[in-house]
Amino acid sequence: MTNSIYISTAEPNSGKALVALGILENSLRKSSKVGFFKPVIGDYNSGKEDEHISLVIDHFGLDLNYDEAYGLTLKKANELISQGKKDEMLEIVISKYKRLEERFDFILIESSDYKNSITLEHSLNIEFAKNLASPVLILTNAHNKSIDDCIDALRVAIDDFASNDCDVIGSIVNRVNTDIITDLDTELAKQFKGNKMLLTTIPADDRMSSPTVRDIVEHTNAKVLYGEKNLDVLVDNITIAAMQMQNFLPKIKENSLVITPGDRGDVVLGTISAHKAQSYPNISGMLLTTGLEPDDSIKHLIEGMQDMFPILSVPENTYLTANFANEVHASMRANDLSRISYAKELFDKHVDSKILSELLAQVKVKGMTPKMFQYTLTERARQKKARIVLPEGNDHRVLEASAILASQDIVDIILLGNKEEIIDVARKNAITIDFDKIEIINPVEYVKFSEYVNTLYELRKHKGMNLDMATDAMSDVSYFGTMMVQMGDANGMVSGAVHTTAATIRPALQVIKTKPGTSVVSSVFFMSLPDRVLVYGDCAVNPNPNSEQLAEIAISSAETAIAFGIEPKIAMLSYSSGSSGSGEQVEKVRKATEIAKEKRPDLKIEGPIQYDAAVDPTVGAQKMPGSEVAGQANVLVFPDLNTGNNTYKAVQRETGAIAIGPVLQGLNKPVNDLSRGCLVEDILNTVIITAIQGNQA
After folding, report:
1. How many CA atoms lie within 13 A of 45 on its CB side?
2. What share of the chain is helix, strand, coil (3-state, %, to 5)?
3. Cα 393 to Cα 442: distance, rounded to the nearest angstrom
4. Torsion 368-369-373-379 (CA) sign
5. Does 601 have pLDDT greater than 90?
6. Any idea where the Phosphate acetyl/butaryl transferase domain is (predicted)?
7. What pTM was computed for the model?
8. Nearest to 697 by CA among 447, 500, 485, 391
């Protein structure tokens, strides 16, 4: 997985640009393959781009175009959420991010800008950080805050991310008033003592926080009358001139933007004079309101002056204009080399990049989120399209799933059955399906039917099967589909929407047979919980496995987990943990654990162990301290079918988890079973799983 950092702010104006520039500068010293990504950007008018994306791409010359650097707009995200399509929103972000992950060694991910609903955007950033499996660096804004306020804001942000299973590797408190910075550093170290994360502060600095006159122009949509070449000067103060000159002049502060009505020629002339005089502060610019401009004589005077500060004009009144101007915050552009260089200096001075790199290296990838898991599966299947045979071509759910798989070009589908009947089922159920993309085979009419019959006869004649019996069997879609897989005419088969589990598995055992060294065909479910994916086995095939069989199920389940990108931590479940219990069932699990460990010492296996101790870190630490598995298990092996089947269904119903499976394991080639109550989504997921297995076989 690509190394990454997710910069998330607890509030607006926390200085993301400064931190982003510093991190990217340090990253580019180690690798040229550095990327940048924002899951959500603001809704900009036509032709305007996100400032940070443009800044980092242009300044660093990243091998990245603008459209690749973001997921979607906040408006689009809101639309999808309001339509109940949050999953679709996540899929868009994950898909675009994963494309970058294939190209770059490091990706800096930056949160949204908090220009709309802070609550919504904060929750979205947590969701994105979790699904992109990126460690989080939290920024907070300490401007005009007390030490307690800073600590409270930081604690809330850290707790929010940590409680959602995100790794928080550090926090930067930015724009800290210099009179509290030492005490704040001390308090941070005290309050977060024992937390392995970077904690640092960056002092407030006008050079970074003050907008430029150009920022004022863009925010107020002002017309530039004079001084266009000086638009990049900083504005540290805003001064409203609504009084006589003798009262106004003493109120001018350094680097002020003076706001006054356009017909106040006396203020215009007085401000120009003050700017030229060494006894008064520097003037950054003037903003003339009400749409009025100085009369011709004053314009003539201004035009004769060299190196004039910017004079701007807006149609709004002075009160509204002052409010607009006060809302303007500093932005940074690629051509603002002086401020960019200064930002990098500030970062290097106050942020220990070595510690940050060390913390990143220590981050361990946790279990995949369900959305990332499903995305990864789909992309793996799409990269190497498999041919999957579906024997139950007359079932409307199978046809709906086939339509989706064909339209998204994920696998090549083969449906078994009568073509006219299948088309009629699609028509009656209003299923839009492109039959040009799907192969339909009627088994008895297939060109290889006789070859399949003879093959089955040769395989089963020692069991008393004759040619007539083989012909009858091959007319059955389950046997025919299984033979297609065995003969290499399909990469895998998915059945069970109509047929029983026995009808699906029996032909596979007779024709495809088990892998060498495997005596037990078993199954797992991928349980997509809200925050992680677990592997449950065996919940569908073996009623009451003995210790040897249970050990084999555990090893097969671990291998299945590895094949699908999950690093297995295996819990051999029982009604007691460790050596605390006794009884026939506990001893069976204890012996199975010993056998599995002996056969596969490379795997992390714990047992017997109770479910709560297996998945809950607190309970696991209490019941089995020091265990590598307790509290962290992601492969859960049940002692019997009764326990496993009931548990997976209970978890599915009570938590809303998506149960993908059963996925059969132990066969030479993939055949997978569906529940007769399956949904279209179940069929989609099982076909994708089977396609991946088929490509690995």
Report:
1. 3
2. 50, 20, 35
3. 10
4. negative
5. yes
6. 372-691
7. 0.61
8. 485
pLDDT 10s digits, 5-25: 999 887 777 778 888 888 888
Q: Each residue of 471-480: pLDDT tens digit? A: 999 999 999 9
Contact partners, residue 152, CB within 8 Å, separation at least 6? none
Distance (Å, whole) CA 636 – CA 536? 5
- Residue 638 has a CB neighbour count (10 Å cut-off) of 26
Domain 367-513+668-696 CATH (choose: 3.40.50.10950, 3.40.50.2300, 3.30.360.10, 3.30.1490.190): 3.40.50.10950
Summary mean pLDDT of the chain: 87
Nearest to 127 by CA among 173, 174, 80, 83: 80
Query: Distance between CA atoms of 116 and 362, rounded to whole angstroms?
Result: 35
For residue 338 the two structure tokens come to: 């002086």
Sequence-distant (6+) residues with CB within 8 A of 342 are 207, 208
Please write the tens of the pLDDT for every residue from 424-462.
888 888 888 888 889 999 999 999 999 999 999 998 889
Cα 660 from Cα 92, distance rounded (Å): 22
State how far the Cα of 681 lies from the Cα of 684, in Å rounded to an integer: 5
Do the Cβ atoms of 98 and 68 come closer than 8 Å? no
Q: Supply 298's token pair.
A: 């004053």
Query: Which is nearest to 287 in space by CA: 307, 266, 317?
Result: 317
Q: Residue 619, Cβ neighbours under 10 Å: how many? A: 17
Residue 180 identity = I
Token duo for residue 312: 């701007």
Sign of CA dihedral 542, 544, 548, 554: positive
How many separate helices (H) and strands (E) can be counted in the chain? 28, 23
694, 669 Cβ separation under 8 angstroms: yes
Give which of 593, 581, 608 is closest to 555, Cα–Cα.
Answer: 593
What average pLDDT does range 348-377 have in this prediction?
A: 74
Structural class in CATH, domain 213-327: alpha beta
Report angle CA 311, 312, 313 to the nearest 5 degrees.
135
Note every long-range contact of 299-304, with CB atoms under 8 Å and residues 24 or more positions apart, other chains counting: 301/269, 302/226, 302/268, 302/272, 303/226
Helix axes 547-563, 680-696, angle to 10 degrees: 90
578 sits in the region (left: phi over 0; alpha: psi -120 to 50; else beta) called left
Strands 3-9 and 635-637: unpaired
| Distance separating alpha carbons of residues 532 and 535, to the nearest angstrom | 10
Give the domain 3-208+336-364 fold: Rossmann fold (3.40.50)
| Homologous superfamily of the 516-666 domain (CATH) | Isocitrate/Isopropylmalate dehydrogenase-like (3.40.50.10750)
Residue for token pair 């209970």: 650
Instruction: Give the model confidence (pLDDT) of 611-654 as tens digits.
Output: 999 999 889 989 999 898 999 999 999 999 999 999 998 988 88
In the chain, where does the domain assigned CATH 3.40.50.10750 lie?
516-666
Q: Omega into 516 within 30° of 0, i.e. cis?
A: no
Residue 588 token pair: 């069976």
The Cα 584–Cα 472 span in angstroms is 45
Taking Cα atoms as reference points, which of 601, 506, 518 lies closest to residue 553?
518
Nearest in space to 638 (alpha carbons), one of 576, 582, 573: 573
In this predicted structure, what is the pLDDT of residue 367?
57
Tokens of 658: 């998506």
Residues of the chain with CATH 3.40.1390.20: 213-327
* The two structure tokens encoding residue 241: 């001139």
Main-chain phi, psi angles of 255, to 5 degrees: 55, 50
Give the sign of the dihedral formed by CA 17, CA 23, CA 28, CA 34.
Answer: negative
